[in-house]
């Protein structure tokens, strides 16, 4: 998989994780959003739990209270949901 395909795949997984836990409408705004989401995307691209993430998302297709525990962005995604 080339780097563009990997980036696209990880962005899709990241979006699905945020949507699955119900945090889509609570993200940061403005310049802060760019910084926060850029950092989250980098953590996601570097993550070694892609298959576990994909399986977790499939297992929680109806939604979940919190992000997958092994997700490097779990604390961020969970905090977005709380706001």
Quickly list its features.
83 residues
Summarize the structure.
This protein is mostly helical and 83 residues long.
How many separate domains? 1
- Calculate the mean pLDDT score and round it: 90
Number of helices: 4
The count of DSSP E runs of length 2 or more, i.e. the number of strands, is 0
Question: Segments where pLDDT lies below 50 for 5+ residues?
Answer: none
Amino-to-carboxy terminus distance: 36 Å
Description:
The mean pLDDT is 90. The chain is 65% helix and 0% strand. Helix 1 crosses helix 2. The termini are far apart. The chain has one domain. By secondary structure, it is mostly helical.
SSE layout:
Layout: H1 3-20, H2 30-46, H3 50-59, H4 74-82
Helix pairs in contact: 1-2, 1-3
């Amino acid at each position: 998989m080339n780097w563009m395909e990997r980036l696209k795949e990880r962005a899709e997984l990241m979006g699905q994780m945020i949507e699955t836990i119900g945090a889509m409408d609570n993200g940061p705004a403005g310049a802060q959003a760019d910084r926060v989401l850029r950092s989250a995307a980098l953590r996601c691209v570097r993550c070694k739990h892609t298959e576990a993430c994909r399986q977790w998302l499939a297992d929680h297709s109806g939604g979940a209270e919190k992000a997958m525990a092994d997700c490097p962005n779990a604390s961020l995604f969970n905090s977005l949901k709380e706001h």
